Here is the input.
Amino acid sequence: MKKRTPISEIMTKKVITLNTTDDLETAERLFKKYHIRHIPVVSGNHIKGMLSYTDLLRISFADAIDEDEDTVDTIVYNMFTIEQVMAKNLISVSSSATIKEVAEILSKREFHALPVEDNGELVGIVTTTDLINYLLEQY
Here is the structure.
């Protein structure tokens, strides 16, 4: 196992994002369409927050809807904006951070994804699943 492997080797580079002006119904559709659990919320290329599927579950009955279902009950979603539900004050890492450094951050915190930023711009996202898949490839 290489000790200094940068996170850029395993991060997702084609990141699905939301804008602060998008609605929560759009967010749920993206979560289900792409089978993802975290979506950075951006303004241009600058990250403003992170929305997780768990954030949606906290305010709705989204888990009662079939994963393949296209219809979404929007009554609860119309009561909140993405900015009200998303996590703010994020910890981010640069693409040159090592996999070990990222693993240490994720192991000590209660979240499962980190935005990857270079020069203040979003360039990727890394999740605990990315780390597990990397470790599995080593064996």
User: Anything to note?
Assistant: The first helix runs from residue 24 to 34. The chain has a mean pLDDT of 89. The chain has one domain: 7-137. The first strand starts at residue 18 and ends at 19.
